[in-house]
Amino acid sequence: MQSLFLIFTVFIAAITCNNTSYGQQSTPIDSEILFVRRIAPLLREKCLGCHGNNPQEIEGSLDVRSLAGLFAGGDSSEPSIVTGKPDKSPLYLAATRNSDDWSEMPPKEAEQLSAEQLTWLREWITSGAQWPSKPQQETIQKKFAEAWSLEDGIPVGTSGGLSPEWTDRKYDPAGLWAYQPVTKVAIKGTRNPIDVLIEQELPTGLTLAPRADRRTLIRRATFDLTGLPPLPQEVEAFVNDASRPFISFTPLRRANGTTLVGCRPLCRFIRFCE
């Protein structure tokens, strides 16, 4: 019985030891991933413009190009981050814009960090503020590229930008509608397809404008296409023509022989320009 108890004790100790070891290693790994995923882009976007892009003109002597620069601090000579303690880290306190001891950063209110960005910064400092090397960052990027791409958008081939971040930027698929293949949309009923599609996308509370009468339609068309009102005989001919409007437009000609409207799709479009 004592032997079994001893074996059981050793087994539990081994598990505890392994879990502790894993826990000690998992925090830096998470911190490194968070840095590559969120913190590095955040520093580039919000900080480097004044604190690193031009090494000769670093404001407040705070260089955020490296972890060593953050630990060195700026004019105050205090480290800008205190590992594991965001509430004692000047970098975080300045970003919250609620500190009496540290100036608001970024200084422009329009560029202040969002609540989500502040959470990333806080979590990074809390998790150990790990700053992986360039090769490590590239490895992490490759490992999570597909998953992050699905979250951030899709890449679009370009001729290149001023930086890899700009060249490899991601786009929301909803914003790339113009680059998608054209598909034929099934339209139910006999109404004009343009009417149906516009009505489907109308904001709540809005309705389609009433159909213009023929006298109004001929005036709109001629003003839009020539900048002049229609001739009286053109108005009467159009009003008294029983054909559909785009057919009625076709034979209308000025006295000098020029065609008033020569394109049926354009006649359909006129209604919606007004």
Would you write up a description of this structure?
The chain has 2 domains: 15-175, no CATH class; 214-273. A two-stranded antiparallel ribbon has the order 1-2. Residues 1-28 and 261-274 have low confidence and may be disordered. It is 50% helix and 1% strand. The protein has 11 helices and 2 strands; from the N terminus they run H-H-H-H-H-E-H-E-H-H-H-H-H. The termini are far apart. It is mostly helical and 274 residues long.
**Number of individual domains:** 2
What is the string of helix and strand elements?
Answer: HHHHHEHEHHHHH
Round the Cα radius of gyration to an integer and report it: 33 Å
Low-confidence stretches: 1-28, 261-274
Mean pLDDT: 77
Query: What does the largest sheet look like?
Result: 2 strands, antiparallel
Q: Strand order, biggest sheet?
A: 1-2
Q: How many separate helices?
A: 11
The helix/strand class is mainly alpha
Give the termini separation: 94 Å
Helix content: 40-55%
Shape: elongated
Find the count of extended strands (DSSP E, 2+ residues).
Answer: 2
Strand content: under 5%
Describe the protein's topology.
Blueprint: H1 2-46, H2 67-72, H3 90-96, H4 115-126, H5 134-152, E1 154-155, H6 164-167, E2 170-171, H7 193-201, H8 214-226, H9 232-239, H10 245-249, H11 264-273
Antiparallel strand pairs: 1-2
Helix pairs in contact: 1-4, 1-5, 8-9
Key structural traits:
single chain; 274 residues; mainly alpha; 2 domains; 11 helices; disordered C terminus
Describe, in short, the structure shown:
By secondary structure, the protein is mostly helical.
